[in-house]
Amino acid sequence: MASTVFKSLTDTTFDSVEGYRKAAEKAESPSLKQALTQRCQQREQTLQQMNAELQRQGDELVTKGTVSGELHQLWMGITDMFENGDEAATERVEEGEDYIKGKFESALKSDALDVQERAIVEQCYNEICEGERFADMLEHQYD
Fold first, then answer.
1. Does residue 126 contact residue 67 with C-beta atoms inside 8 Å?
2. Which residue of 68, 132, 134, 136 lies most exposed, with the fewest beta carbons within 10 A?
3. Residues 25-39: pLDDT tens digits?
4. Which residues lie below 8 Å from residue 137, measured CB to CB, with a gap of 6+?
5. ∠ CA(133), CA(7), CA(49), 5° rounding?
6. Which residue ranges run through the membrane (predicted)?
C-alpha cells in the first residue's frame, strides 16, 4: 500500500490536471488556451507516472478529484476568475502551482515516502517545477 503522503500528492496532481483543463476551457486568449492545454497534457503525464506507482503497490488509481482538497478549491477559484479575464486567472494559476510545488517539496523533505515513492516524486517534481515556472511566466505576461 502506498504511503498517505504519496496518495495525497497523487490526489493533488489529479486536482491540478482538472484545474488546467477547466482553465483552458475558460481562457479567452487563444494563445493562453493553447499554453494551458499543453501544461494540462504534461501534468497528465505526471499523474500517469504516479498512478503507475499506486497500481504497482496494489492501490486504487486516482481518477477523480478530492472535492475537499485545498488545491481543488483553489482551482475552482481559478476557473471562476476567468470571468474577470485572463489576467486575474493567471494570477490564480500561479497560486495553484506554488501550492503544489510546496506540497512536493515538503514530501521530499519528510521521511514519509518509501524508496520507490521517493524516486517517482523526485522525477515528477521536475515537471511540477516547470509548471511553477510556466505560471510565473504567465503572470508576468498578463500582469
1. no
2. 68
3. 888 889 998 999 999
4. none
5. 60
6. none
Task: Identify whether the C-beta of residue 39 lies closer than 8 Å to the C-beta of residue 22.
Answer: no
Length, in residues, of the chain? 143
How many C-beta atoms surround the C-beta of residue 11 within 10 A? 19
CB–CB of 40/24 below 8 Å? yes
Gap between the Cα atoms of 26 and 93, Å rounded: 13
Q: What is the pLDDT of residue 75?
A: 62
Q: At what angle do helices 86-109 and 30-56 cross, to 10 degrees?
A: 20
pTM summary value: 0.88
| Res 2: pLDDT | 84
Confidence of residue 93 (pLDDT cuts 50, 70, 90): confident
Q: Are 90 and 138 in contact (CB under 8 A)?
A: yes
The number of folded domains in the chain is 1
